[in-house]
Amino acid sequence: MRKLLFNLHLYFALVAGVFIAILGITGAIMAFEPELDHLMHPHRSYVKPEGQPKSLVELAAIAQTQEQPGQRPLAFQMSPSANIAWAVGFRDGVVYVNQYTGEVLGVDRSQMNFLGYVHQLHLRLLTPLWLPNRDQHQVGKKIMSWAGAASLFLIVSGLYLWWPTKRVRVQWRSGERRSWFDLHNAVGIVSLVFLLVLSLTGVVIGFDEESGPMLYKLTGSQPVPRPSPKIEARRGVPLISPDQVVQIARATLPGAVPVAVSVPNPQILCGVSMRYPEDLTPGGRSRVYIDPYSGQVVQAESSRTTAAGTKLVILNRALHTGDIFGMPSKIAMSLASFAIFVQFVSGLVMWWKRTRAQKRANRGEKAAVAAS
Question: Does 311 reside within a domain?
Answer without folding.
Answer: no
